[in-house]
Write a structure and sequence with these properties.
This protein has 115 residues and is α+β, with helices and mostly antiparallel strands. 30% of the residues lie in helices and 17% in strands. It has one domain.
């Protein structure tokens, strides 16, 4: 169909995320945007650890998950507390958020959108 734009996120998923929420609070501190930052970041960190453990397993090293540690990250508008996964051998060094990094990449560099 011409003239339509494919959305990156399914409309049904968006409807589920927006259900029962006050539209005024979607972009507020601790609103939907902050929840999405947290959920997406933790999912990416988990996938990074999965990849790390697979690579170590392929190299013959025995390693596995070992819980998580909490880390507070600063964004351009708020603070987000993440559960960063750990491995038993202590060799996992996330690429998304480095060990001593306290600011989300690119969030601080972008200018706020003004209407």
């Amino acid at each position: 169909m011409e003239g339509t734009i494919d959305m990156a996120i399914d409309k049904d998923v968006l409807d589920q995320l927006l259900a029962g929420r006050d539209p005024q609070e979607l972009f507020a501190k601790d609103g939907l945007l902050d929840e999405l930052k947290k959920a997406l970041s933790e999912r990416m960190l988990s996938a990074e650890l999965d990849d790390h453990l697979e690579n170590e397993g392929a190299a013959g090293t025995i390693n596995r998950r070992n819980g998580s540690s909490r880390k507070t990250m600063l964004t351009g508008t708020s603070k987000v507390t993440l559960d960063v996964p750990r491995d038993r051998a202590g060799t996992f060094d996330p690429k998304l958020i480095a060990k001593y990094q306290r600011r989300f990449p690119d969030f601080d560099d972008s200018a706020p959108i003004r209407a």
